[in-house]
Amino acid sequence: MSPSLMVPRPRSVVTAVSTDHIQDLSGPEQRLLKKLYEGLIGGQRASLAESITLVETQHPRKKELAQVLLQRVLAYKREQESRNGGRPQAFRVGLSGPPGAGKSSFIEVVGKMLTGRGHKVSVLAVDPSSCTTGGSLLGDKTRMTELSRDMSAYIRPSPASGTLGGVTRTTNEAIVLCEGAGYDIVLVETVGVGQSEFAVADMVDMFVLLIPPAGGDELQGIKRGIIERADLVVVTKSDGDLVPPARRIQAEYTSALKLLRRQSRSWNPKVVRASSYTNEGIPEVWAKMESYRDTMLSSGELQARRQAQQRVWMWSLIQENVLSHFQLHPAVREALPRLEQRVTKGAISPGLAADLLLKAFASS
Ligand SMILES: Nc1nc2c(ncn2[C@@H]2O[C@H](COP(=O)(O)OP(=O)(O)OP(=O)(O)O)[C@@H](O)[C@H]2O)c(=O)[nH]1
Fold this sequence. Notes:
The protein has 364 residues and is α/β, with parallel strands linked by helices. The protein folds into three domains: 1-83, Single alpha-helices involved in coiled-coils or other helix-helix interfaces (Up-down Bundle), CATH 1.20.5; 87-299, P-loop containing nucleotide triphosphate hydrolases (Rossmann fold); 329-363, no CATH class. Helix content is 58%, strand content 10%. It is built from 16 helices and seven strands. The chain has helices at 11-19, 27-41, 45-56, 60-83, 103-116, 128-132, 145-149, 164-180, 196-201, 217-220, 224-229, 243-259, 282-299, 301-328, 330-345, 350-363; strands at 91-97, 121-126, 153-156, 185-191, 206-211, 232-235, 270-273. Strands 3-2-4-1-5-6-7 form a seven-stranded parallel beta sheet, with helices on both faces. Helix 12 links the parallel strand 6 (232-235) and strand 7 (270-273). Helix 1 (11-19) packs parallel to helix 4 (60-83). The chain is globular. The protein binds guanosine-5'-triphosphate.
């Protein structure tokens, strides 16, 4: 993109973030940020919840405040990490699977096991249905009832509205806030619908696919592309009558994974079975996750993955922002309906229309 097409950033954002200060913030704003920051790093759930609400806001000034808060939390996390020899302190795990795969039951038992072992666990949801329909695949029913009562756990439903891009951004930011609040395990849950799985795979250290032990049609919804992204596949509900089909699915996925391109030089994706009802296989699943983390940390791949994710995240923010500036630009808005109509009728080529719109955008 030529420099003339670049969108100037609103000045106030630049000032607020780069100086992190004080002269730009009013007294009440400073007090609010101080209260949130101190509460958050003190591990208070109410402050964490309020901080996540702040990053989810659409309000322009509050968005700026959210960025200031994030900068402070990031600085705090960097300090903590450098004390930890540069190793990330938290482990981010993405969990996905078709509706009814047993995700919430799985997260409930794994989450309880982990808090029982002294971990602090947060669960964030990315629900693409709330973006498109305003309804929700993940949020409507009561899920993870026990874990939600656990003081060492924090469960946050998906933001109720916005584009997938917007939800992705706020989830990325919510991860940072959870880690600042001392949650050492962050689980990001999504359903296997639309692009949300790929978005989640791009924001975590490890991506886990949950597959129910049912054949045929129910598995049709699982995209090949997402299986390639899985570091671990868990065949759920492996109990009672479901053990034989669970074994069969395990064998099928094990051979399917062998044919796929490896994502990591040090880790081979595995397929395991577990039951949230009997708890069988649950400690083993966690042991595999830990072994993944140790392997990827010692090979340096985990750190490299995070660095790459930061870049991807930045570029997707830029794309989203540039596009919305473009769409809101007065000259573009004026020319767009007529040009769109002419393109649809075949009067001019899409390329020419795009050029004209970009010129209109760049010229004023
Ligand atoms: N037999 C058996 N059933 C299970 C197990 N885990 C979950 N289920 C059942 O499977 C159904 C779906 O479980 P959920 O945990 O709600 O699945 P989910 O993937 O979170 O579902 P959505 O919220 O629709 O995305 C429920 O009826 C559960 O009781 C299990 O380990 N064994």
